[in-house]
Batch of 2 targets.
Target 1
Amino acid sequence: MIRVTGLRRAFGAQEVLRGLDLEVASGEILVIIGRSGGGKSVLLKHLVGLLRPDAGGIFVDGTEITRLGRSALDRIRERYGVVFQGGALFDSMSVFDNVAFPLREKTRLRAADIRQKVDEKLAQVGLEGMGGKNPAEISGGMRKRVAIARALVTEPEVVFFDEPTTGLDPILVNTIHHLIVELHRKFRFTALVVSHEIPEIFRIADRVAMLHDGIIVDSGTPEGIQGSTNPIVQQFIRGEIESVPAGR
Amino acid sequence: MTDRGAALAQPLPVRLVGGLGALVLDVVQSLGRFGRFLVQALTYAVVPPIKVGRIAERIHFIGFRSLTIVVLTGGFTGMVLGLQIFLVLSRFGSEAFLGPAVALSLIRELGPVLCALIVTGRAGSALTAELGIMKISEQIDALTVMALNPRRYLIVPPIIAGIITFPLLTGLFDVVGIFGGYLVGVELLGMSEGTYFGEMQTFVDMSDVMTGFWKSLSFGIIVTWVCTYKGYYCGHGAEGVARATTQAVVLSSVLILVWDYFLGSVLP
């Protein structure tokens, strides 16, 4: 279980996270929604240890990770898989080598076993036979799927998805969402998905949390969030433009 | 009142001192980070696991792929030296010293410096751009969250490759340059081959070769250190990568010349 308490982070004079509290239960799919620039990706970078907070704590199964050294933090990260917004595929490697990379570097598996695992994972994301391609030769949707395959190949306990469907067409958005649910059902990892695909994201979430102005303003089941009385949540879900001050 | 507002409310002398202090702190911090970057890389270079495959790939990238340009520039540098030094020496009737003059200029000075400048332009700039693009496309973050140390993969191999390839490329530059001087002095201007090479053996000794070797070795470290540092800490977007690449080439070139003078004054 991941617990975030009073997380604060400022970049210069701009305070992005302002005492954020959050809990992610083991095995659930928690979706964090919120406006662009609201701090969702910054929160995610704190959770995976890429950024350190100014104040507050992040507890992973009771271990406070914000003050850990590199090697202790790496032991926590070994339980993680991360799907970056742009995929973050290594462009000097083929699709196969990208997915095989964590296995080659972090395990002592034989080449034949690695090949089998990678082929299996590529098949699960619908990319069988694409291993020889270069990331630059495949479409945006395929790159996202390769990134998902790479994040899951080490069978992590927790998978972070940073806007996994941004820039994709509606059919691909649903394909990726369906893939996340299917893989979650199969491997039972804890998933934290940062997204603003409304309302599609409600179909895959166990729980939804709304991040606004550096804090979680509301959280609950997808139905609960959709019925929330919080005007910020409703405004976001309905995609309403903020009210324009009188006289303009 | 905002921080900026509060700062503007201060009297001018206080603001000037404050600005100067901030600048000094910034410079000291940057220098500290720059130095620490190299120390960490050199530490990882001797502590396993060593990424042999990545080092070999970087040797190929920095060394093998620079061969053509090094041979080309080395050859023409030697030819220019042969021509110009011959013209000067002929005024004093000392053409016999063309061989040692070309060889000493190349081995002690021009070989290491020009070779380093050329490799900076060809491979150093590419190193910075590659790392910068990896940074802005979150590939470095991807390595970090895989619990892999990005510096072992991205910084240590080029630095080791620089230490190995720069002296070898410089050696090649020197040999081709001496041959270029031979072409002009002997084949074109009619000097005797025996004089060109014979006098060279008399005047060039091992300390000259070692001076060139130490220079090229240190340039290998400087260029790969500066270029990887600038790429690793580049700014945002395409503009950040472009700026980092320019800074890497300029800073490497300046440091090569400064360090060359320093080494030239302390080495025998």
Target 2
Amino acid sequence: MKQFSGPVILLAILIAFPWAVQDSYYQHLMILVLMWIAIGSGWNLISGYTGQVLFGAAAFFGTGAYTAALLLNKLDISAWWGLPLGGVAAVILALPFGWISFRLRGPYFALVTLALSEIMRHIATIWESLTEGMVGILVMQTWVSKLPYYYIALALAVLSIVIVDVAVRSRLGYYFVSIREDQDAAESMGINTLYYRMVSLSLAALLIGLAGGLYTNYMGFIDPKVVFSLHDVSIMAILVGIVGGVSTVYGPAVGAFIMVLVQELIRTGGFGFLAWFTKTTGWPFMTTVTKYVSEAHVLSFGLLVVLVILYLPNGVVGDWLCVKKTILFRKRETA
Amino acid sequence: MCEENYTVPETGNSLRRYMAYFEARGITKFFGGLAAVNGVSFKVEQGQIYGLIGPNGSGKTTIFNLINAYFPLTKGSIRFEGKRISGLKTYQICRRGVGRTFQVVKPLKRMTVLDNVIASAFLHADSKAEAVEEAKATIEFCELTLYQDKLAKSLPIASRKRLEIARALATKPKLLLLDETAAGLNPSEVEGAIALIQKIRESGVTIIIVEHIMKVIMTISDKILAINHGMVIAEGSPEEVASNHSVIAAYLGEDYSAQS
């Protein structure tokens, strides 16, 4: 009973959140966090548990997003159908891709996934008759209120955590980790490693594709640069996984929260702190600083990865005991 | 699902020609121009411990890698229980009942010993509870119970070798390929390894073993195959092989062979 209480309390808080915090800006941030939980969980399955580093989460994210947008634009089907179908489309992309590229191992596989996302981005850019190219696709939002989006995103986040949790406790989880630890040994243990790597990749693609479909519906506008973005999607997915804790069920949830916060903090120049600082001090060079800080968020991601790998190699969740000790120690010191 | 069991059609031989339990027929492996294994044939009967010896680089481990399809065969065929297993994939061969251990042990490092064996036991288990039970029994059989909750990477070499065996046994093999299970162990651990191998044989598993420690191979083998440069140089009982001239020549040089 006790082991369930933590997640249940957290879920209750998340359900109550939009009623407690009416500000649509914070609701928007929480929707992003929930969306990133789904993407991070997907990344964690294939890269954290199965050990096949996915450097191109954007390929599946963008496929999901474009599926939703194109269904509306070309076939006049509600973009909400694009949410589940976006997941399906991502899986359809993942299957032949996995079958071909799982011949490669380690960094070579990672590079091919990177190539896949770049290929998809170029297709979306060049095939203007289908995708409108760089002009992008506009989808009318269904609701003005953020509440429905929030709860759909919450459902998606819960779904992804449940999928990961159930998967890793079962045969799948044991097989995934065996493949990560030693593919040859796994094969000699009677595990069809190609098949199980495909399963892992498909589950990951499904979750990431669903998140993509949600993104189109929620944001109302997509273009190739945004949804197939290397740093805003692919790298962010890796960061969510690493910061939160690789191969932990709740790692991506913590990672998503931290990363969206960090991203927003830098993008807005410390939630407007820099702008306020510039105004009050009146120093002219602060305008330049503000501009560079908000543009440098990709750089700061890199620094964050270096720090996390140095001090918390297993992420916040994986090294939780270590984090707790450090915090307690600090407290005692100041007291 | 890719879980289907391939059934290779039996060769329609009405005369029911005698078939060995395990048979390698002219297996050959070329790495580029180098014949690592060249036309090796041997038969293993059910319940035997079959030893494979030869100097370093003579192709013993390569034979194992050919049997479990870690490498594809260049030529020849391998039959097990009357069915051809050459041409199948590694995991399919494991499902047919051929387990193996690696000379350079491959523990799943960031998993506990128990999880290592559970992952293996899932092959013939329908539920997790069944796999756990099976794994625990196998761990007890291999006398690893003390280490069961330790991470595999923290084990000393003797226990790692045992873990390799436990993992192979958890797939319920009928034929077990042991690759230098006693290498790197101290004398008392070697005794333990011999006892374990004999215990495995008593449980009804046929064993093919590669070993450098003569004490091990001479005490437990029923039959020994000696190879050098990838070719068979002698086959027979331990005594026959130990006194064979070409075996002594291969190990100690022509001079010793001539003296004896």
